[in-house]
Write a structure and sequence with these properties.
mainly alpha; 5 helices; two-stranded antiparallel sheet; 94 residues
Length: 94
Amino acid sequence: MKERGIGRPSTYATIIAKLLERKYVIERKGLLFPTSIGIKVYRYLNSLEHVREFLSEEFTRRLEELMDKVEIGEKDYEAILFELLEKIKIRHDS
């Protein structure tokens, strides 16, 4: 996750634990592998056009960058939340 620029150091362990708990992935020799249910969930969500964009690494990476800018005072969190909400509404309504 870190190498791909997604997630936050404080959330890596929680995210991985949740994926393991839900049996979306299994761990072997320190590596994570998707399970058949994990693949099915991903394919299903990816098949929903109004959701697909929000699943992408690029979307997550951009959102993480914006969160970093909020943290250092370069961006206003309310403006970012408003833009995100508008994007979700547009996707949901289409």
